[in-house]
Amino acid sequence: MKELNLDKKKAVIDSLHEKLAKSAIVISTDYKGLDVAAVTKLRSELTKAGVEFHVAKNTLLRRASVETDAALINDSFKGPTAIAISFDDPVAPAKILTKFVEENNKLEIKAAVMEGKTLDTAGIKALSELPSREVLLSQVLSAMNAVPTGVVRVLAEMPRQMVNVLSAIKDQKEAA
Fold it and tell me: What is the pTM of this model?
């Protein structure tokens, strides 16, 4: 990264601080050894999922994280650091980064912070194994839809059974 003058550094810090304050999850990574093509591919995959991927100097990251949940992972801002920030879905960046690490062992996931709690690499891996937000929402909607559907079936069945009983009584009286 080029040398930044003081005003540009303050602008970077303010921008990062705002993003860190709004984030649902922040994942810190070590990208040492990745070539430009690999970082571009990773950034593309993250962007498609609505996740921002930033490479910044550690001192700027530390200053930007003040008074945000990301301050809990300041210890991970050492060496070549890039952060993935998601504002909505905490599972998406965990899935993408975990998959990328499996395919390309040069990327290292250091730590994450989600809703004021830190996650180590095992926690991030566990998070990546959860279904995506869309799948979870569809499961909830399916469950919510099943209850009224069941009630409608039961209510529709009651008159049908009553008609069958009355029909049986009519048949009995006609036979007698």
Answer: 0.72
